[in-house]
UniProtKB/TrEMBL annotation:
It comes from the Archaea. The chain crosses the membrane at residues 18-36, 56-76, 96-117, 156-174, 195-218, 238-258, 270-294, 326-343, 355-379, 399-425, 451-470, 476-499. Its main location: membrane. This is Choline-glycine betaine transporter. GO terms for cellular component: plasma membrane. It comes from Natronococcus occultus SP4. The keyword Transferase does not apply. The lineage of its organism: Archaea, Methanobacteriati, Methanobacteriota, Stenosarchaea group, Halobacteria.
């Protein structure tokens, strides 16, 4: 038997096998180091994180603004009417399934994890003087930063460029390979640049791995804290059991495929999420949630650009970069596979429809969710014990403490575990689908290769249970996404070129059809004579 068959690489070219081997080996080595020397890995990753923020924090902020402007131009110009997959393409999924997959792949358990962690952290450690918004209560300012980072403009900066690029170049213009590097063919011939193309695909795989591994790692530590503190169970052991169960469900999803596996997992996660936040709104500090949500929305909407570009240039340290630049780097790492996956499930939809499904609809839902979860932990009676837990045990301990002091906390804890598990599953499903597609250059990768990617990502995520500091995982997306940011500008330009060529090609085609239809040889002068 062909030894490559086991890895789903029997039909792959040498370069594609190299992509898989190098990325997988690096991933396995990083996981092994984390298990063997977690303190050393923790110190190394934190040092790299600080270096990137210190020297390149400004770059992530500036790039975000540029990409936001680019997306707005493409979406609201004449190119917004271009249909992904061509003007005759039909939607492959119903509205609910489509929106469910777009939302669950794009936003993950960070809604709960950072929805608690960021506002409480900012209240505990506010921005340096002078304050970015004078006179705003620190609780409202903290929640406003959360809106900036995960509602708007954050999600409009980083996901749409990838979705538009994949939709316009891979599915509408057409290419012979399903790879990130294929988007460069619009502006750069492959001849003489094959090495560059291979490096681009390798950098993309590594960046995706960094973003997804961080999300799985965050989730693993929150599982551990909830199981241990909220339910009094052996935390680490039960977390491994939980991930083993998720692994079995994941393998089932892999074999069921996109339409039966990933689609159904996304639907179930959306329902669980809506039930969880509705329940928390009812049993939590409802009136405070309503009031602070509106007050923070006023701070957010009135100071959106101020908060998005806040760098505190005269203050010591990297306070704004530790938040905004971290978020933008994580968005960039996730944008690689989220954008490509969204384009895949959005075939038959226009560019404008895809933007609405990816930005406007989720923004409304995210604002409600973050208002509920942020108002919950910032409320009097909650903020003090949650802050103490944050200072002593990090964000996972803060979440577990908030759950234990909430009425019907056991129900809230179970719902949170189920929701985060659903997000882990859907994110893992879609990430490995894209990782395998990019590796093989195939829109429908085989299940064996996808399963290997899932095992490797899960291994790296569970390894983070051994890391002594939760914050170390912030370095994964920030450090690994940095080399790929220049490619973002290249694919943005390539998207514009592809949209312009396709639009004018369709326009010329329509004019040609109109000319043929209007020309009737029977009515010519020659025939009349």
């Amino acid at each position: 038997m062909n030894p490559w068959y086991l890895f789903g690489l029997e039909d792959a070219r040498r370069g594609e096998r190299g992509l898989f081997i190098i990325t997988a080996a690096s991933l396995a080595a990083l996981g092994a180091v984390g298990l063997w020397n977690p303190h050393g890995l923790n110190e190394t990753m934190n040092a790299a994180f600080e270096w990137v923020l210190n020297y390149f924090g400004w770059w992530f902020m500036l790039l975000g603004v540029v990409l936001l402007g680019f997306s707005a131009f493409i979406v609201f110009s004449k190119y917004g009417h271009v249909r992904i997959g061509g003007q005759d393409a039909e939607p492959e999924f119903g509205l609910f399934s489509w929106l469910a997959m777009v939302f669950t792949v794009g936003y993950s358990g960070s809604i709960i994890i950072w929805g608690v962690g960021e506002p409480v952290s900012i209240v505990a450690d506010p921005p340096p003087d002078p304050a970015p918004v004078a006179g705003a209560p620190i609780e409202s300012l903290a929640l406003a930063f959360m809106y900036i980072h995960e509602v708007f403009p954050g999600l409009a900066m980083w996901y749409p460029p990838f979705a538009l690029a994949f939709g316009l170049i891979i599915y509408t213009r057409g290419t012979d390979e399903y790879k990130f590097s294929a988007m460069l063919k619009v502006i750069l011939d492959e001849d003489g640049h094959r090495g560059l193309y291979w490096i681009v695909d390798l950098a993309a795989l590594i960046a995706i791995v960094g973003g997804v591994a961080a999300a799985i790692g965050f989730s693993a530590q929150v599982f551990s804290a909830l199981l241990g503190s909220a339910f009094g169970l052996p935390a680490t052991a039960f977390t491994y059991v939980l991930f083993a169960i998720l692994g079995l469900v994941f393998l089932a999803d892999v074999w069921l495929g996109l339409h039966k596996g990933i689609q159904n997992a996304a639907r179930a996660t959306i329902v669980l999420m809506l039930v969880s936040f509705a329940f928390l709104f009812v049993v939590g500090p409802t009136l405070f949630i309503l009031n602070i949500g509106l007050d923070a929305a006023g701070v957010w909407l009135d100071n959106m650009f101020r908060l998005s570009l806040y760098t505190a240039p005269t203050a010591d340290g990297n306070w704004p970069q530790s938040w905004t630049s971290f978020w933008w780097a994580w968005w960039a790492a996730w944008g690689l596979f989220v954008g490509s996956f969204v384009a895949r499930v959005s075939k038959g939809r226009t560019i404008r429809e895809t933007f609405v499904s990816l930005v406007f609809i989720p923004a409304g839902l995210l604002w409600v969710q973050h208002s509920i979860i942020g108002g919950w932990v910032l409320a009097p009676g909650y903020i003090e014990p949650v802050t103490d837990a944050l200072n002593n045990g990090g964000i996972p301990a803060a979440i577990a403490t908030a759950v234990t002091i909430t009425p019907y906390g056991a129900v809230v804890g179970v719902l949170f575990i189920l929701v985060i598990a659903g997000y882990v599953l859907t994110s893992l499903d879609s990430a490995v689908y894209i990782l395998s597609s990019i590796t093989l250059g195939d829109e429908t990768p085989n299940a064996r290769n996808r399963a290997w990617w899932g095992v490797l990502l899960s291994f790296l995520g569970v390894m983070t249970l051994e890391l002594p500091v939760f914050d170390a995982m912030q370095a994964f997306p920030t450090v690994l996404a940095l080399p790929f940011t220049l490619f973002l500008l290249a694919i943005a330009y390539a998207s514009y070129v592809a949209a312009r060529e396709y639009y004018h090609g369709e326009l010329d085609h329509e004019r040609g059809d109109a000319f043929i239809t209007s020309y009737d040889p029977e009515s010519s002068d020659g025939e009349d004579d």
